[in-house]
Amino acid sequence: MAASATPAGKPRQPSISQLRAFAAVAEQLHFRDAAAAIGMSQPALSGAVAALEEALGVQLLERTTRKVLLSPAGERLAIRARRVLEAVGELLEEAEAARAPFTGVLRLGVIPTVAPYLLPTVLRLVHDRYPRLDFQVHEEQTASLLDGLAHGRLDLLLLAVPLGAPGVVEMPLFDEDFVLVTPRDHWLGGRDDIPREALKQLDLLLLDEGHCLRDQALDICREAGRTEGAPMTTSAAGLSTLVQLVAGGLGVTLLPRTALRVETARNDHLATGDFADPVPARRIALARRAGAARTEEFEAFAEALREALRPLPVRVAGRSA
């Protein structure tokens, strides 16, 4: 057997077809049986093995008129060839999975003022309709979520919009009203016609800075004519704590309607009131990168989620353009 034909004396790159032919012969130790096992003609298989020997510069087989034996080098390289073919098979399987919708990993980022109230619906949808999806959830504030989306750490975001972020496409899911949460004996508790102007002088409790719900509440207050000097306390990092402060008589707060049942149902020290039209509201959407490779999949997921959310106290949006 001649050494490698390359000028530098180094083995040439073998082809997958050559490795398949050699692995089949190494397993069957018979050219006819090996050819049948991989669906190749016997002359083509023999040629592929000979080409592999020439490319590598080593003799892999000892051929006699009655049988085929592996050379010492052939025994060692047969193990390597099988590993390469297994790795190629795994690569093809991974590519197939990537082509199939709703398989592989989907990393969803969600804001804290949405996660406890919508995730049960989201997770039930994924479990029932997309069982092959490796679904991962990350709860973070809006700025961190947008950074994760931009750098590929996250695939989709579930959060309040509009974002005004370049390179981000919003897929609206629903609009929901804000409800005023008060102590049980508050004069606005139980009313269904609260004017926005009532917010001007209330002791309003808000989330800490960084929460988009805080910014939305401040916008609502400014629209109602509330001045910068009006009583306002930033007291809580989460809605549950905020509601407990209201129950303790420290002030009132605004809650999105999807949070109402979870946060107030078991506390008899609270009352709620609805605003008169036009009712202050927020919009919740999925967000993705513009030009994302899985755009069609994400749009289909958004549509399925809209349908799943219909039983909630929200106004489901139409399909995004």
Question: How is this structure best described in words?
Answer:
Helix 7 links the parallel strand 7 and strand 8. Helices cover 41% and strands 22% of the residues. The strands form 3 sheets. Strands 3, 4, 5, 6, 9, 10, 11 and 12 form an 8-stranded mixed sheet that branches. A two-stranded antiparallel ribbon has the order 1-2. The protein has a two-stranded parallel ribbon with strand order 7-8. The protein is built from 10 helices and 12 strands. Helix 1 packs across helix 2, helix 1 packs across helix 3 and helix 2 packs across helix 3. It is rod-shaped, with a radius of gyration of 32 Å. The N terminus is likely disordered.
What's the arrangement of secondary structure elements?
Layout: H1 16-28, H2 31-38, H3 42-56, E1 61-63, E2 68-70, H4 72-99, E3 104-110, H5 115-129, E4 133-139, H6 142-150, E5 156-161, E6 168-183, E7 204-207, H7 212-223, E8 232-236, H8 239-247, E9 253-256, H9 257-264, E10 270-273, E11 281-289, H10 295-309, E12 315-316
Parallel strand pairs: 3-4, 3-5, 7-8
Antiparallel strand pairs: 1-2, 5-11, 6-9, 6-10, 6-11, 6-12
